[in-house]
Write a structure and sequence with these properties.
Layout lengths: L1 E8 L7 E6 L5 H12 L16 E7 L7 E5 L8 H10 L1 E2 L1
Antiparallel strand pairs: 1-2, 1-3, 2-5, 3-4
């Protein structure tokens, strides 16, 4: 599963920071957990209000399934089985 993740918001404003993760690059057990968690995201739902003015928002899309639309997560929702997405973004993300 190829997952695009983009972080926007924060102190710097709307400077997007993004990366793409192919779960085939993760250990098999971790890949299964990430894929299951991503399948359960609120695809196409409207983004809620940020927790505070400088909060980050994470936009997740599936490169192989653009028809699903985008899932938007607020700061603090990218935890548990989704944590590898945040880690991948921090290690491999690029501005733009």
């Amino acid at each position: 599963m190829r997952i695009r993740i983009r972080r926007v918001g924060g102190f710097a404003g709307n400077i997007p920071f993004g990366a793409e993760l192919d779960t085939a690059e993760l250990p098999a057990d971790q890949a299964r957990r990430v894929e299951a968690a991503v399948d359960g995201l609120p695809w196409g739902a409207a983004a809620g209000a940020p927790l505070h003015p400088d909060a980050f928002r994470y936009e997740v899309e599936l490169a192989d399934h653009p028809d699903r639309g985008r899932a938007v997560l607020q700061e603090g929702q990218l935890t548990g089985d989704l944590d590898p997405l945040r880690t991948w973004l921090e290690e491999h993300g690029q501005i733009g």
